[in-house]
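Q: Predict the assembly, please.
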Amino acid sequence: MNDRKILLTEDEMPRQWYNILADIKMNPPLGPDGKPIRAEDLAPVFPMNLIEQEVSTDRWIDIPEPVLDVYRIWRPSPLVRALSLEKALDTPARIYFKNESVSPPGSHKPNTAVPQAYYNKVFGIERLTTETGAGQWGSALSFACCQFGLECKVYMVRVSFDQKPYRKAMMETWGGKCVASPSMETRAGREALEKDPNTPGSLGIAISEAIEAAVSDASGKTRYSLGSVLNHVMLHQTIIGLEAKKQLNKIGEYPDVIIGCAGGGSNFAGLAFPFVLDKINGKHIEIYPVEPAACPTLTRAPFVYDHGDTSRYTPLLAMHSLGHAFVPPPFHAGGLRYHGMAPTVSQLAVEGIITPRSVQQIQAYDAGIAFARTEGIIPAPETTHALACVLEEAQKAKLEGKEKVILVNWSGHGLLDFGAYEKYFSGDLKNYEMTDDEICRSKKVFENFPKPAHLKSR
Amino acid sequence: MNDRKILLTEDEMPRQWYNILADIKMNPPLGPDGKPIRAEDLAPVFPMNLIEQEVSTDRWIDIPEPVLDVYRIWRPSPLVRALSLEKALDTPARIYFKNESVSPPGSHKPNTAVPQAYYNKVFGIERLTTETGAGQWGSALSFACCQFGLECKVYMVRVSFDQKPYRKAMMETWGGKCVASPSMETRAGREALEKDPNTPGSLGIAISEAIEAAVSDASGKTRYSLGSVLNHVMLHQTIIGLEAKKQLNKIGEYPDVIIGCAGGGSNFAGLAFPFVLDKINGKHIEIYPVEPAACPTLTRAPFVYDHGDTSRYTPLLAMHSLGHAFVPPPFHAGGLRYHGMAPTVSQLAVEGIITPRSVQQIQAYDAGIAFARTEGIIPAPETTHALACVLEEAQKAKLEGKEKVILVNWSGHGLLDFGAYEKYFSGDLKNYEMTDDEICRSKKVFENFPKPAHLKSR
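A: Predicted assembly structure:
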């Protein structure tokens, strides 16, 4: 009998993160003047130690001991052979999933929330603000702040706040404060409410409120925290792939195919980047970021300079973008509803090192339920998108008669997202696809921005 | 740096369950005629292989290989040193918790759901029925039936069905069918609805519906499944304590104090029974089942013969009971709202081998939140009762200046129970305590039943 789980001891946990900026060329972020921004421009928003990490090109960065100690609450996370799923699919492929749902908040998000809280703490910061859509990120930051004795304030998009009251309770259990956005607490919030008192809110407004609350605190002890997109977030997440590599190595395996869902890009990057390094050095691996057809950033949007938020507070980032004003249709994978994509992930797509794919919502839930009925655990709506791609690849391996090794990031569980499963079972779940016209219209917002260079890293 | 988690490999998982019936004397269950029931009396309700296990006095019973293989999805479960909690409490005690929340349904319940589904399957049964209150047991049985290709039908108490729609979605994700009880599908349900169309339902009615649905299936291919109380349920749960013993042994520890919450008794028994064996053989250990003050079965109710269900379908069991007609006040630990207690656990209490305790609801949530804010993970309402006792014992160790080893069963997570946490934070959570008068009244139902002997096992 083969083991299902490949475990590492706490001693075997990696002691450094992998920084992909050492190995790829990047277009710099631009300020309002169209010139590359300087570190000090970001100082009111982020602590200087994280800004330094954001721009570092060191290949390996030490994980601080207090961060490792909190990681030990749930890390190293299990790598699991999906034996029952393989059997049900009758595939010659060997499928391994990295189970990031074992963290207290239930997803990969604390991999970066914990170091972000730590670096803010040692920089003397006492309070963090952030936004959250589906609630995974707000939960993770509340958990991390609780571990380091920081206050945490989360602006949660109103429609999710009302639909998912349990997320607020989770944040409060860890001492976080969560308000519906738009709120009356910020100028950005009040303006949005004046315009429309019944607005469901948006991630864009929530980001504006969180940044405003951070930079307007006269004590200087508050900063803002972002859960995806930025370089240091991708960096922190690489612990996923570094662990997976050690785990596969233990049993003499190496992946032929790597799959992760992609919203802002952080769970995908976390698993894939340590293997991208191997691919750049000559290994043959197929690497698939998977996005929803309803928000097709990598698969259908151009590589441009655009803002990271709707209110255009952030610098211009070189990335695939549907336009900072884009509002996706109401599909259920809240973590995949972002208009842009991490600049590092975008750059890899531009260079053809990774191969973006998209799936429809119903296909994703089909895969999620096939997984739950074999392997037992119930995936988050985001994770089901990666699983749909796993099923396609397992089927392909069967048709080709090849013993491929498929590695997927099981980024989170769905235990606080059963609303979507209920809709699936009652037949109320819909597919959404953007028309070419919609994409053309959404692109207008960045027409007059500078254009990024198409760099070639090797 | 000490490791937080003590892990076992899948190879190190115990291969046998421990059967406490080999080591203690028991009053037999009685039929309607007041005489000990025979195996064949139970045959319409349970498959014969489980009935044989129910009455076996073999000390060790082999775990079938297909059961071990499903256990491998989440077992061996981690034993975790609560280093951060210890530090926050400034206690010399070393606190270890056995994390049973890592199973797909999120509690210890699948430890018995999986073998019950397996034994029914090999006996040729195609469909199981059961009841569920809070939803943990219904979820666990749905998961287990899915693994062995059985149909699963769950009668869920109406008030919980309405309050916790996510539990139904969870069961459906694994292919289970869940209806609100009372339903129109059974005679018992229809009678209850005729009496009161707006009844919130009760565990008693739900049990009656599930048993009726099993025994009235003319094909003979349906049986009923119970998630606590019975001997074979306690047996299956002992994998918890057997693993914990191995894990503590690995690091040279042995518990001074063992704690588990107790509703029907199964998670408490699962952790404690393998250590009870040592205690019977001379080891000094304090063993505490912890119950809610609002349903004080072990701490305030007598040891009597009583029915396991409100409708008096079950045999008379020798146990601590508040009376089969007892309806507990509406506190939030649904898994601790049972009027009786497992006969094996009751017998140990009668003999003074274990020492029952009770805690108030608010004290329990205080402890749960103290735990979540240090160790990260968020406990189920039931589990918080055990944690309240852990805090008391850690404080006692501090006052005594003793380096005690405390072992607690962390029976489940609270991710589907945030309603109670919300009430706690809004100040709407109440304590309940039974008056002596209420206990006197509730005892009337078993006044005329036979009385069990006070047996002494050693």
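The radius of gyration of chain A is 21 Å. Residues 5-9+64-106+232-446 of chain A form a domain with the Rossmann fold fold (CATH 3.40.50.1100).
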